[in-house]
Amino acid sequence: MFGFIKNILGGGPKVDLRALVKEEKAKIVDVRTPGEFKSGHIRGSVNIPLTQIQNAGRKFKADQPLVLVCASGMRSSQARRMLKSVGFTNVHNGGGWQSFQNQIR
User: Fold this and answer.
1) 43, 80, 86, 104: most buried, per Cβ within 10 A?
2) pTM greater than the 0.85 cutoff
3) CA 44/CA 42 separation, integer angstroms
4) Cβ(77)–Cβ(93) under 8 Å?
5) Three-state secondary structure along 8-76?
């Protein structure tokens, strides 16, 4: 049961997201609404709202490293599941954008 819950929330083997962004040039995708994104976001991130995340295939290759963020980690977890279900293989939940921003400084 714990493994199931961990999998739903984006758990699994720990990945060094900071290194993924700094060294492997992972793209940070903010899945909040445009209004939320406009009020503050990680510099260099792109905004693709959760409601439009299925269109990410038009912007990114399926194996490109992506780190998804939102306000708390819930929408980015949903987005991760959605992208994995359509073939994305290197997608990670970064959680809330503000805490993730502090991690990658």
Assistant:
1) 80
2) yes
3) 6
4) yes
5) HCCCCCCCCHHHHHHCCCCEEEECCCHHHHHCCCCCCCEECCHHHHHHHHHCCCCCCCEEEEECCCHHH
